[in-house]
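Dear support,

Our group has been running a series of protein-ligand predictions, and this particular one with glycinamide ribonucleotide is the one our PI (initials K.S.) wants archived with full inputs and outputs. We had some confusion internally about which version of the output was final, so please treat the block below as the authoritative record. The input we submitted was:
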Amino acid sequence: MLLEKIKLNLMEKLTGHNKIKTVVFISGTGSNLKNLIKFSKIKKTPISIDLVISSAPLAKGLKYADQFKIKKKIFNFKNFKETEKNILILLNKEKIRFICLAGFMKILSKEFIKKFDKKIINIHPSLLPKYKGLNTHERAIKNKDKFAGCSVHYVTAKLDSGKVIMQKKIKITTKDTSISLAKKVLKQEYKLYPAAIIKIFN
Ligand code: GAR
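Confirmed final output from the archive:
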């Protein structure tokens, strides 16, 4: 009995079969990807990361797919409709059930999002609904905000506007620059993204 359980645990660990098959979309550094991969290896995780999709061939984050032996695919998004169609074919083939955007700098179409309704989430470096889009930290500092932070939210057709799942707030000090703030927020992102995924599936 015990042996069976150990075997099963080992199989599940090796194959990730009891977990929700997940793809991570990236465009750049991929530090959130790396963090999510690590999270996908711990016991209490609900997800397995089976695929990495990048919109940029030189995205640094692609190295984590190699390092952790995860399938990776680059799409250039030149023909957006065609690209999304091909991504959907691939996700179907790989039996992907859940999509995490992590520093993915393309805006997915309404049609694509519909196919994965409530199954696409994103991490954004601001306290949404404040500062959708780019340069969030510059804008927070310029506006002399007292707080910054990050949000994990469902992806809808409207940029950075889907329901917020979880947020983390941090203080902005008078010494903060957009660079120091980005670093501080990123540290919090590493805690928030896994916590939000656990919240969704628990
Ligand atoms: C992260 O700060 C993430 O929140 C942000 O890009 C960075 C990616 O870093 N995402 C967005 O701005 C999306 N609107 P990473 O590539 O090291 O994970």
